[in-house]
Amino acid sequence: MKYGFSQKLFGYFYLSSCMKEAKRQKLDLDKKAIKKEYKTILLRASDIGKSRLMSSYCMGAYFIALNRKTTLSPEECFELYKNGLSNNALFHKVMGDADSYLDPKKLPGRKKWSEESHLEKYKNDWIVDIIEGGKNDN
Q1: pTM of this prediction?
Q2: 88: which residues sit within 8 A by CB, 6+ positions away?
């Protein structure tokens, strides 16, 4: 995969979120090594085009880099990552909450996305299924 602007931007976002949390926890992590590993992982990864899930793809790559370049256990890396993102105001602004995600006005666009994902244009792209439910569904 190319290491372009969006991959760099997502990497910076995840790195800054985790480093703020690491600082809060008084952890000394090798920022440069993590950043370099993240780039290496993405350069080896199969392309997924201009997928709407590029941020998730990059999130996974960053988590792998964090695991490989720290002495933290996978569980500790997860907690660091989760807490870093949870404390990031921009993350909440961009992602919204469950109600905004499930807004009925967004359903036609999500259905189109689902249809396009089933074309399987890329080896590692994601397949998205939209399952509609009623108000009483859990």
Answers
A1: 0.77
A2: 13, 17, 20
